[in-house]
Amino acid sequence: MAYAEKRGPNRWRGRYQRPDGTWGSVTRDDNGQPFTTKRAAKDYATGLETDVRRKTFLDPRNGRITVGEWAELWIESVELANRSDTTYRQRLRSVILPRWKDVPVGDVSEVAVKVWEQQLRKQYKPRYVKSVMSVMRVMFDDAVSSKVRADNPVPTLKSRRRGRYKGKQQHDEVVIATPRQAYLLARNAREMRGLVGYTMVLTIAYCGLRISEVAGLRREHLLLEDHGQGCRLLVQEQSQYVDGKKAQVAPKYESTGSIILPPFLAELLRETLASHTHEWVFPSARGKKMDVGAYFYADIWRRFVDGHRAQTDRFGRPSRLPDMQAVAGIENLVPHGLRHSMKVWLDELKHPRVAVEERMRHTIPGVEGTYSHTTLAMEKEIATDLQKLWEASVAVVDDPGEWEPARPRRKKGSELISQESPTPNEHGPKGGAGA
Q1: With bands split at pLDDT 50, 70 and 90, how would you rate the model's confidence at 54?
Q2: How many alpha carbons fall within 13 Å on the CB side of residue 377?
Q3: pLDDT confidence band for 257 (50 / 70 / 90)
Q4: What is the chain's alpha carbon radius of gyration, rounded to the nearest angstrom?
Q5: Residue 245, SS3 per DSSP
Q6: Domain coordinates in residue numbering, the chain
Q7: Which H helix or E strand runs over 257?
Q8: What is the pLDDT, as a whole number, of residue 432?
Q9: Superfamily of domain 63-145
């Protein structure tokens, strides 16, 4: 039976029996305040014994483990794909642990976490802050399930809806292109990278590929002879860095698939394969696997979007790159924006959701996902409509308003990051699929 012991002037501790029969002690309440009366200490200890009988007991000692110690144990227990594992560890190392490393898990309060999140929003972009908070939320979810503490102090989206109403936040960080803008973007890519660059941009736009999947696309992944099922692109791999080296790994969330090609794209891919002898469908300028890291975004992709001013260097030598105008209306577009764009095009065309989501390699949750199925007829209708969008986009006469003067190069450190970077979500996609 629980009881209280005097520990000094105006200080008491409660004694209670743990589930294993040993005796534990507690000197503070849930708010961290010491017990100043015998009754307060005994009542709290009695409550803990009640929890033991109800099998809801949380040992107060568990909450004294620091966030740093818990994070070290936790990260090794989570099964993640290589890229997500890298992301989780980076968020912990760079942002979470510098603030919370020495704080006991049981002392992390929701108010303190909210104040910290507001500070992060002043330093980082919203998407990055969302990723950091997702890692921390998952870590504390596991702390609750492991009975290290009773609740999760990281607010969910629903619990954030207190205070000043801000209205629904739109996904304005995702820039969407029209089929015509995708075509103009591909023309800029052709100026820099020839047929390979031209076809690469259109493949992303009309197949909805992630940029890492484009880089990892091999010749054997293209089935360009139609035997009644349509010409196909097989998504089997993606290119990623594993332990600092380029490697071929499974697509994000294991989202493999077979994508039917519109006729124009099948023909462009045939021409592209005939134009070189390399293993990769879209090789680098030197014939190797394309690198889609920071250099690609800063020095290649941004020029596709923002154009390029051909100027002589300080020695008077001509520019190695052509003079190109910027495509109007899609400033800040990243490759993943073209994946979003294809989804928008197909939604506007009213194609069945199941067929669109399968092309995106998403999973539809619930009963709808169980009983909905994509037919070959649905896929062929998608290919037909994408062909029509393409034909309409190239039939338009160029309008000066579609172009803008080349935009200035961005300073280092201000470059947009890929919107493909994974946002942690309960150790993987839940109730839907990854972007």
Answers
A1: low
A2: 2
A3: very high
A4: 28
A5: strand
A6: 3-60, 63-145, 179-404
A7: strand 257-260
A8: 40
A9: Tyrosine recombinase, N-terminal domain (1.10.150.130)
Phi, psi for residue 138 in degrees, rounded to 5: -65, -40
pLDDT tier for residue 163 given thresholds of 50, 70 and 90? very low
The Cα–Cα gap between 196 and 221 comes to: 16
- In the Cβ-directed half-sphere of 97, how many Cα atoms lie within 13 Å? 14
Task: Tell me which CATH code domain 179-404 carries.
Answer: 1.10.443
Distance CA(144)–CA(383), nearest Å, equals: 48
Strand-strand pairing, 232-235 and 257-260: antiparallel
222-231, 303-312, 375-384, 418-427: least confidently modelled range? 418-427
Other beta carbons within 10 Å of 367: 8
Question: Closest by alpha carbon to 305, among 209, 185, 410?
Answer: 185
Buried b (16+ CB within 10 A) or exposed e, 109-132: eeeebbebbeebeeeeeeebbbbb
pLDDT in tens, 340-363: 999 999 999 999 999 999 999 998
- Give the integer Cα–Cα distance in Å for 243 and 319: 36
Specify the DSSP class assigned to residue 300: I
Tens of pLDDT, residues 223-241: 999 999 999 999 999 998 8
Task: Fill in the amino acid letter for 242.
Answer: V
Residue labelled with tokens 């609750």? 144
3-state secondary structure of 104: strand
* φ, ψ at 78 (rounded to 5°): -90, 125
